Amino acid sequence: MTAATSLKEVLKMSESNVTREIVERFNNAFEKHRPEDLDDLIGENCVLENTAPAPDGARYEGREACLAFWKGIASSADLVFKAEDISVMGDRGIIRWQLRWSEREADRIRGVNLMRVRDGKIIEGLGYVKWG
After folding, report:
1. Residue 123 predicted with pLDDT over 90
2. For the SnoaL-like domain, which residue ranges apply (predicted)?
């Protein structure tokens, strides 16, 4: 630690590293269709706000409800997720993604998940999409 680096900055960097690892593992579960990889990532008091139905999306509360919803998506071989970008800032993670459900160009959407991680577990996932 240099004189210019405070303990708070070091802790924030460490927190960002943990957040990045968790968010990347979360995203990989969807890209690789491995729902079982989500088991160790979701916190007990997790809150999920889905992208649909508009305008606010369905809300899921608690580890089991969030895990069941996300596992259902991750297990679908018909859905192809691809991360466009993953960014982290402390306990917050942002996943910009694209979802395809066929080879047709029109059969895709782009979206973003705003994630929050505490103690190495996802405690919040807010999803948003661009609809045409």
Report:
1. yes
2. 23-124
